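Students often ask what a 'structure token' actually looks like in practice. Rather than answer in the abstract, let us consider Glycosyltransferase family 4 protein, a protein of 410 residues. Its sequence is given first.
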Amino acid sequence: MRIGYLVPEFPAQTHNFFWEERKALQARGIETLIISTRRPKSTLISHTWAESAQNQTTYLAEISIGEAFGLIVDLVKIGPAGWLSLFGAALSGCPPRQIPYNLALILPALKLVNLMRDANLSHVHSHSCAGAALIAALANRLAAVRYSLTLHGDLEDYGTQQEVKFRYADFAIAITKRLRRQIREVLKKDAPMRIGLAPMGVETEVFKREGPYVPWSGKGPLRLFSCGRLNFVKGHQDLISAVGLLRATGIEVVLEIAGEDDSGGAGFRKVLETQVSNLCLEEAVRFLGAVPVSRVLAGLASSHLFVLASHHEPLGVALMEAMSCGTPVISTNRGGVPELIDHLSNGYLVSPRDPELLAEAIKLVALDHAMAMRFSDAGRRTIVAQFRSDASAIELERMLLKRDEVSKEN
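Now compare that with the structural description of the same chain:
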């Protein structure tokens, strides 16, 4: 089987999962052609495999003048019935301000149609329910391109026209039970008949600790590590405030944060840097920017605790990476995190937006060696048992094979 594998702005800082899933699909006999919307900012490219990935990727937004002319000719050829179906999908439920954007997606959709034909692809799977999903839906209206979607977060986070995006999909996959329920409850008749469940996962043979975990001794630096985009919803500002509170009590907390903002360092990072300066934490908080897996592994290995203070986290691959490495985790009880972390069993959960509560949790786990060791051991076991990187590939393969069975029956 040969399919298109659509990931927007690939390969960016959070895309290691997709690279690993592709390898898992390949091992199961499913060949994937990487397709993306456009290239990410250079400051958001951090992985050692990124250059190879870009060379293998077809970018739908990269259209030359000559290619654009050919695509317009293709558009003219589809005729009035095709135009009606295409523009109906592009404009259905579209806010007026978004109409120019949607119309601009028609040429990338035509490019996708031609790519599917020329590369002999039987299906395209989109790992986004934003613009990439609409491109897939428009390609379906243009040439009956078969596609599917994975929902990685709340529907509202991916913009309007979710009904259109899901209506024509062969199937969908949700990364949590909560999101699967959301697809059915919100989209109702527009939800695909088949909705799979496949949490994101990590490569446990890569994300593992070389030596035993050693809790904080109570003396010297208490080393914290966090990893995530520098975005308000990730709650880094709350974690920084918690660091300030802990240091005010005499605990020598130091924090490393891996990840960059969506503007390549010119956006929310500036807000966080100002906060660090105002709290006089320049020697305690270090921003690493977008870093490769090797640096994440080093940060996890050298830290006593991993903390992610998200206001809302769909599931949390960064949490999985930490747990797989046996680093005790503290996070918030929102979104899909409770499907990953069982409070007091394999990690510690607090309410979001509460630096004081977060500081108390960090101090509690750091000083309770038995609890920290329990989280280290149970966290690793949880990931190995339930959140391996090949789990999503297995589910995608199952859904694709079921799609073909349904086609034969019809």
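One point worth highlighting: Residues 226 and 265 are 17 Å apart (CA to CA). Ask yourself how you might have guessed this from the sequence alone, and why that guess would often be unreliable.
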